[in-house]
């Protein structure tokens, strides 16, 4: 039995980063299992990697990260970051003038109340949505000495801040890289890496030397309903400004993926959609029918055994916009992100239907609420918790300092009781 400290998550959906690769074959990556047995892999459909000048490979030490509920995110999310999982770096970080004012402006934008997408279904058809949103979506190309990759992103401020997936740009923080952003009108600009978070797969970059850019409207992902129409926009397989449509297939779907350049994994409480998402779409927006951002396309499930041959089978997953906004705000303000925590360690025992507590941190929120080692969390705020990932994802989606209600049982699944826990503050 693996015992790993966890952040709360939901159903297990695991896989590998879907990568569309034009280079020499990559070592095969095994998925941690599909959402259902028929879906073997979850992939990162949003990045494309191409060969660059060969470099000696540096062995990366892979530290074993404990998963503490509310501490470290989960592990094996299949990222759609082949086109964009490359390397966004600080090549252009030399010019820092007016960065403070710029950051304050975009942070205030992220803090503003989200739009009400209650009438989103009546706002217009896919054509109208595409016309409104396309100018706010960019293609991201990252070039390092060892590889080139590509993904997508959404402009969130007039002066060029762009919201995308961490797996699209993570190598930028590891080695020198050139980041080029292509606008919807075909113009190109240099960009620099601001910050990214591997645990949530959210990152921010900034386009250099621009002003008065069109920005995407921020929607309310908490108001989504299953069956609601949505539109996905991005650069699948390098084809920029590609528009697909579908519906919200499910909500609160815990999805874990890994396989980016860092080798680390992410866990998200995802929006599931049947809108076609393919390698290169990573980081692009999922919008409602009013054109408001309600998710960041990030992961796909695939029947393919290898990431480079994976494609859409109608099982795509997006990071909820409200959650991404909070993480982006932290990244811009502090350069790193933290998540609410309970202060417990969870077991990854597949035989247990729920999240088994193996350790409670002294004086942490869980300890103060009366949680005990050996107990099993089977519900949170009325939501079924059937795995450690489910609890981690659910907790991450909560607010700092929020009071949550957990249903716990003893180690045999009996003697159910309710426990109220106040999550850690930011």
UniProtKB/TrEMBL annotation:
Basic and acidic residues compositional bias, start-end: 56-65
Matches recorded under InterPro entries: Chloro_Bact_Ser_Proteases (IPR051201), PDZ (IPR001478), PDZ_sf (IPR036034), Peptidase_S1_PA (IPR009003), Peptidase_S1_PA_chymotrypsin (IPR043504), Peptidase_S1C (IPR001940)
Domain of life the protein comes from: Bacteria
Pfam families: PDZ_2 (PF13180), Trypsin_2 (PF13365)
Sequence ranges of Polar residues compositional bias: 40-51
Domain PDZ: 331-412
Annotated keywords: Hydrolase, Membrane, Protease, Transmembrane, Transmembrane helix
Regions that span the bilayer: 71-93
E.C. no: 3.4.21.-
Record field: compositional bias (Low complexity): 18-39
Signal peptide: none
GO molecular function (one): serine-type endopeptidase activity
BP term (GO), one: proteolysis
Region listing for Disordered, in residue ranges: 1-66
Assigned protein family: Belongs to the peptidase S1C family.
Cited PANTHER family: PEPTIDASE S12, PROTEASE DO-LIKE 8, CHLOROPLASTIC
Protein known as: Trypsin-like serine protease with C-terminal PDZ domain
